[in-house]
């Protein structure tokens, strides 16, 4: 069986947790933040766990993660 290639973009965006789920950075936090409320900016801090419906696709993109 040959080695599988990992998806380069997925490597940069997702990382695995200890329980085997994937976490990701939240969108809408890079620029044009002056018109966003402080509450919204605060809630977009940190990382979130990927939804279970998308985990299979990410697992296929990152076979060795």
Structural account:
This protein has 65 residues and is an alpha+beta fold. The chain has one domain (1-26, 37-65): Irregular (Factor Xa Inhibitor). It has three helices and three strands. The protein has helices at residues 8-13, 38-43, 52-61; strands spanning 14-16, 22-25, 47-49. It has a three-stranded antiparallel sheet with strand order 1-2-3.
Secondary structure tally, helices: 3
Question: Radius of gyration from the CA trace?
Answer: 15 Å
Low-pLDDT stretches are none
Q: Please report the distance between the alpha carbons of the first and last residues.
A: 18 Å
Structural class: alpha+beta
Strand order of the largest sheet: 1-2-3
- Under the CATH scheme, the architecture is Irregular
Largest sheet: 3 strands, antiparallel
Q: According to CATH, what is the topology?
A: Factor Xa Inhibitor
Mean pLDDT figure: 96
Domains (count) = 1
The coarse overall form would be: elongated
* Secondary structure: helix percent: 25-40%
């Amino acid at each position: 069986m040959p080695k599988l290639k990992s998806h380069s973009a997925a490597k940069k965006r997702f990382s695995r947790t200890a329980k085997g789920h994937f976490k990701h950075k939240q969108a809408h936090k890079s620029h044009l933040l002056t018109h966003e409320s402080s509450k919204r900016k605060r809630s977009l801090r940190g990382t979130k766990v990927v939804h279970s419906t998308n985990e299979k696709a990410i697992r296929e993109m990152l076979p060795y993660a």
